[in-house]
Structure formats: structure tokens, C-alpha cells
Specification:
By secondary structure, the protein is of the alpha/beta class. A seven-stranded mixed beta sheet has the order 3-2-1-4-5-6-7, with helices on one face. It has a two-stranded antiparallel sheet with strand order 8-9. It is built from six helices and nine strands, in the order E-H-E-H-E-H-E-H-E-H-E-E-H-E-E. Bound molecules: 5-O-phosphono-beta-D-ribofuranosylamine (GRF). 5-O-phosphono-beta-D-ribofuranosylamine binds next to helix 1, strand 5 and helix 6. The site of 5-O-phosphono-beta-D-ribofuranosylamine (GRF) has 17 residues, from helix 1, strand 5 and helix 6.
Length: about 220
């Protein structure tokens, strides 16, 4: 399975995928392209040191949104992408990409959707909001992507306890390591093994791979 990984920042989620491919856990999975939304993303250096092709496709560099979508779509199709993985990617994908890769785009969000998500809820903000609200558990969510921020069908979630002395930074770091870097490789593994079924907004994880002839993603 060819995956394209879309990034905007440090790339710790990308690194987790790279490490799991190396360890053999993601056998049969190949990162055919990394697309960064800006040239400053440290994730680019992680990809280059693995010899993974990198493209920088930044909305600000295009005269129109349509031109940006066209570039993004042609890059993904050109890389023979089977699955698009948003790993700390902060731009909203255009409808042509979402329709072409319908039910084949997943995103990791650092909170338990539907809590602390939506426009503007990225980076440290979900963790600040979680602490301000006084929740006792938080975590991360892997979901399929549709046209609205963080609203697609939920595939995987993992919760951890919020500690009395947690700050947004300490909570963010624990959720990255204990939740995100586990959930995203696991989600890719399940999809590569054909064990995911989507009916409307509900995702079902199957014990075994879906047999031939049935609806697959
Ligand atoms: C992660 O918490 C991710 O969920 C969020 O941005 C953070 C940075 O991710 N969207 P990464 O280190 O760039 O993978």
C-alpha cells in the first residue's frame, strides 16, 4: 500500500510511521511521498534523511484555491497514493482531493473528538482547552476526513488520564507519545489489512480482512 503523508510541523507522527515501517510492523506499507504545507516544517528533514520524496505545496504560493487543489491532487495521484495520511497537517484539503480519495484520507487529532476540535483547534490549543474545562481524561482520535474540520467518521481513539499538575505542554507531550504515535501506525495497519468498513458515519473494525466482493474502502 502506497501512502502519502501530509505534514506542517515537527513530524513526530511521520517519524512514528517511518519507525514502524522499519520495525516491520507496517510491512507492505510504503511512503511514496511527503507533502509539507510550508518549507520550514522539520518533518521535511525527517523525510529527506529517509530518502522519501518531498514536495512543498503551500496555499499561499497559488493565485487561487482551485490551483492549489489541482497541484495537491496531481501530486497525490502522481505518487500512486492509495491512502492519504494527515500527520499534523494544518491546511484544509479541497473538495476535488476529498472526492477523489473518498474514505481514503485519515487524520490524527490530539483530543477525543467531538471534544476540543474544529477550526482553530490545533497544536497546543486542544490541550489548553481540555485543562481549562477540567476534563479528567483526554487523548487522541484517528478519523476519516471529509469536507469539514474533524467531522469525518471516527476510526480509533485512545484516552489517558489528565494529571493534577499537567500543563498544556506536558499533556501534549504525553498524548503525542502514548496516543498519537501508537494510533496512527495502527490505523494504517488496519487499512492495509483491509479490516476497516465504513457505513455512513460509523467505522467498524473487523477481526479479519474483508473477503472479496464485499464493500471495501
Ligand atoms: C500533533 O499533536 C498533531 O496531532 C497535531 O499537531 C501536532 C504536531 O504533530 N495536529 P507532528 O509532530 O508534526 O507530527
Amino acid at each position: 500500500m502506497n501512502i502519502s503523508v501530509l505534514v506542517s510541523g515537527g513530524g513526530t507522527n511521520l517519524q512514528a510511521i517511518i519507525d514502524r515501517i522499519r520495525s516491520g510492523y507496517l510491512a507492505g506499507v510504503h511512503i511514496s511521498l511527503v507533502i509539507a504545507s510550508n518549507e520550514k516544517a522539520y518533518a521535511i528533514a525527517r523525510a529527506e534523511s529517509e530518502g522519501i520524496p518531498v514536495r512543498v505545496i503551500s496555499l499561499k504560493d497559488f493565485p487561487t484555491r482551485n490551483e492549489y487543489d489541482r497541484q495537491m491532487l496531481s501530486a497525490l495521484v502522481g505518487a500512486n497514493t492509495d491512502l492519504v495520511v494527515l500527520a499534523g497537517f494544518l491546511s484544509l484539503l479541497g473538495s476535488s482531493v476529498i472526492q477523489t480519495f473518498s474514505n481514503r484520507i485519515i487524520n490524527i487529532h490530539p483530543a477525543l473528538i467531538p471534544s476540543f476540535c474544529g477550526p482553530g483547534m490545533y497544536g497546543i490549543r486542544p490541550h489548553q482547552a481540555a485543562l481549562e474545562r477540567g476534563v479528567k481524561v483526554s487523548g487522541a482520535t484517528v478519523h476519516f476526513v471529509n469536507e469539514h474540520y474533524d467531522e469525518g467518521p471516527i476510526m480509533l481513539q485512545k484516552a489517558i488520564g489528565v494529571l493534577p499538575d499537567d500543563t498544556p505542554d506536558t499533556l501534549q507531550k504525553r498524548i503525542m507519545v502514548e496516543c498519537e504515535q501508537e494510533l496512527l501506525p495502527h490505523a494504517i495497519r488496519l487499512i492495509a489489512d483491509n479490516r476497516v468498513q465504513i457505513n455512513g458515519n460509523i467505522v467498524t473494525l473487523l477481526a479479519d480482512s474483508i473477503t472479496a466482493g464485499k464493500e471495501t474502502i
